[in-house]
Write a structure and sequence with these properties.
The complex is a heterodimer of chains A (198) and B (252). With 198 residues, chain A is of the alpha/beta class. Chain A has helices at 4-14, 21-33, 36-52, 69-72, 87-96, 123-132, 146-159, 184-192; strands at residues 54-55, 62-63, 80-84, 102-105, 137-140, 165-168. Chain A has 2 domains: 4-52, Orthogonal Bundle (Helicase, Ruva Protein, domain 3), CATH 1.10.8; 75-168, 3-Layer(aba) Sandwich (Dna Topoisomerase Vi A Subunit, Chain: A, domain 2), CATH 3.40.1360. In chain A, the strands form 2 sheets. A 4-stranded parallel sheet of chain A has the order 4-3-5-6. A two-stranded antiparallel ribbon of chain A has the order 1-2. Classes of the chains: A alpha/beta (198), B alpha+beta (252). Chains A and B meet through helix 7 and helix 8 of A and strand 1, helix 1 and helix 2 of B.
Chain lengths: 198, 252
């Protein structure tokens, strides 16, 4: 235990995700030994993020205005909508440079044990968007874990009556690996989602 | 570091650090175990798919100071895929694993009956053998019976007078006679009592033949009974979607 301000800083840092008491202590002492101008810049950056950044009113992605840059981009297709769990998934998909449609960020996945049900996600907003916009295909790009799969299953069920093409991201073998090292669940998915080449 | 090996059902996982997870498992020999599975959130992980809830695995663990560490995992029964493919099954299975997690309170205390019961319940759900609501309610009643809270649906739960009786009190522990009946308790239909008895005893012929009204009434009583005796909220129980794609609830 340290005195006043130092312990307060350690406690605050310890609330951050992935930061345990030891890491919090290490970061706190790093900040104490850092040049005051660097610390000021960090504080200003955090304040700016909290003041300027909000969630896009259309898709739920992070944005500095009312709409994010994807929703504002007129060159992107309105016909394909990619549904993801978090805003950071948008960045991951954008890195592929394969997708030129729009996004919809749910804000998480269905997790009954954590008390997160369909009503806690932006599913109603998604349905409203599908009613107003010219979407022809919805790509379900939730995480390939049990919560993500269950969320995709739920969405597929409620989107079915809308008559849209609903697709799910493929699961399978990672590029650059050896087949023999693949686990049976992933390999099974790869077989299930195999595609015709000739 | 000493290692041990066991069969386990993955109950739940929590994110830890950059790419790890804390995995809570119900094992055959060691009861409930919490262990760190390193790197399982990376897409390149070879054990990530095996460390998902509802998977039955053969696992080898290092004994750690606080938490054990997952060393090797092999799949025994991959229930996760069949369950996640049906939203109703997913919600029912989640309620089952949350119940097991709460009923087996202490870590590393053997709970073989709870393990067998949960594995049987998940197997029945994944195999779509019966209506998912019936499987869930049967599991809940039996898991509570194994944990020491067996409900009585025939003899009076207070005085033991032989039934059948007409009132049900979750607080008293099941059916209650006219003398012991507290005010304001439910009066379920005799068919509902028969269904509850069938679910507790594993009489699937009777349970499968029951009507939707009695299933709904039984589900409400089971939920009230479990929530009262557990003394902790089962979050997932309120989110169970009993309309499975494979077993749509019959219309009256």
């Amino acid at each position: 235990m340290y005195d006043g301000a130092v312990q307060d800083l350690i406690d605050e840092l310890g609330h951050l995700p992935g930061i345990g008491p030891k890491s919090a202590q290490r970061i706190a002492f790093h900040l104490l030994s850092t040049d005051p101008s660097d610390v000021r810049r960090l504080v200003e950056t955090i304040q700016t993020v909290k003041e300027k950044v909000r969630f896009c009113e259309v898709c739920g992605n992070v944005a500095e205005g009312e709409r994010c840059r994807v929703c504002l981009d007129p060159r992107r297709s309105d016909e394909v909508l990619c549904v993801v769990e978090e805003a950071k998934d948008v960045v991951a998909i954008e890195r592929t440079r394969e997708f030129r449609g729009r996004y919809h960020v749910l804000g998480g996945a269905i997790d009954p044990m954590a008390g997160i049900g369909p009503d806690d996600l932006r599913i109603k907003d998604l349905i409203a968007r599908l009613g107003n916009e010219a979407v022809r295909e919805v790509i379900l790009a939730t995480d390939p874990n049990i919560e993500g799969e269950a969320t995709a299953t739920y969405l597929a069920r409620i989107l079915a009556p809308l008559g849209l093409r609903v697709t799910r991201l493929a699961s399978g073998l990672p590029v650059g690996g050896d087949l023999e090292y693949a686990d049976e669940v992933t390999l099974g998915r790869a077989f299930e989602g195999r595609r015709v080449v000739t | 570091m000493p290692t041990y090996r066991d069969e386990a059902i993955v109950l739940r996982t929590h994110k830890l650090g950059e790419a790890d997870r804390i995995v809570t498992m119900l094992t055959r020999k060691h009861g409930k175990v919490r262990a760190v599975a390193k790197g399982v959130r990376r897409t390149s992980s070879r054990i990530g798919a095996r460390m998902e809830p509802f998977m039955v695995v053969d696992v080898q663990l290092y004994e750690g100071r606080n938490l054990d560490i997952v060393n090797q995992v092999e799949t025994i029964q991959p229930f996760a895929k069949a369950i996640a493919d049906d939203y109703g099954l997913f919600t029912a299975a989640t309620a089952m694993v949350e119940t097991a997690d709460k009923l087996v309170d202490h870590e590393k205390e053997p709970a073989l009956q709870q393990y067998r019961l949960l594995r049987g319940g998940l197997n029945s759900l994944a195999g779509r053998e019966h209506d998912l609501g019936l499987v869930l309610d049967a599991y809940l009643l039996r898991a509570f019976a194994v944990a020491g809270w067996a409900a009585s649906f025939d003899a009076c739960a207070t005085c033991g007078r032989p039934g059948p009786h007409r009132a049900f009190s979750a607080v008293a522990g099941g059916a209650v006679c006219e003398n012991d009946r507290p005010s304001g308790v439910a009066s379920p239909a005799p068919e509902t009592f028969r269904l509850l008895t069938a679910l507790l005893e594993g009489d699937w012929a009777t349970a499968d033949a029951s009507g939707p009204r009695h299933r709904r009434e039984a589900a409400g009583l089971v939920a009230a009974y479990t929530q009262f005796h557990l003394e902790r909220k089962l979050r997932s129980l309120g989110m169970v979607d009993r309309t499975s794609e494979s077993h749509p609830e019959e219309e009256e």
